[in-house]
Amino acid sequence: MHSQETTVPVNADIDIVTARQKGRELARDLGFTSTDLALIATAISELARNIILYANSGEIVLSVVENGSRRGLKVVARDDGPGIPDIERALEEGFSTSRSLGLGLSGVRRLMDEFDIVSEVGNGTTVTVKKWRL
Amino acid sequence: MQVPILKQRDYLIASIQAALTDADLLQLRDALVSQVGTYRSRGVIVDVTALDVMDSFAVRTLRDLAHMIRLRGAETVIVGIQPEVSFAMVQLGLTLEGVSTALDLEEGLAYLDKKLRITAPPSVKKRG
Fold this sequence. Notes:
A: 4 helices, 5 strands, B: alpha/beta, Transcription Regulator spoIIAA, five-stranded mixed beta sheet, 4 helices, 45% helix
């Protein structure tokens, strides 16, 4: 029923804005509070920026998820970039290999309810995050 | 989208109207750092009321902007950070360390007036 997905290609910095705006719209339709909307939009922004910084291009896929009576928003950030050699380290507070602020992945994890990352050197990175409605 | 920069008295006021790309933010930073010299401005206000997201890049760019403008001899105040945005920033661990902030444009102007008056040399008393 809620199988529709919204895919936002991420190839340039304008796409970061588009991805977070689409995510915010979908989250608003789901009835998230304005505080949650800001958290979700910020998380999407960080994930999309990681794609640009580390992989040059990729995509953000937004969809609605259900668990019993609970509904939530799922965000998948996918790229075919170089991958992350040491995921544990990449998730450490403050760790970053780019010129960004270095709060990327650990920060995104704090903003969302669920966080999952799959990455293989040479085969890209997929980060999946979810936020559930209270 | 370029951010309009208004000159008012000794101040430059940049009022962000819509979501900005990374390139727009860098353009704003460079324009303000340059125009502080052109107009010999002593204070800069960046109004971010319209921003519904301030991610790591935006925060870092605003912090750089404020520090660069201080090096040019002027003061910067960031005004209008929304409640939800402040919450997301704290959750993400983002700070605007060393950068002045104020509730809104009015408070920002009051802050600059006070700050710049205090740091200005005392006026010489007339001989009586």
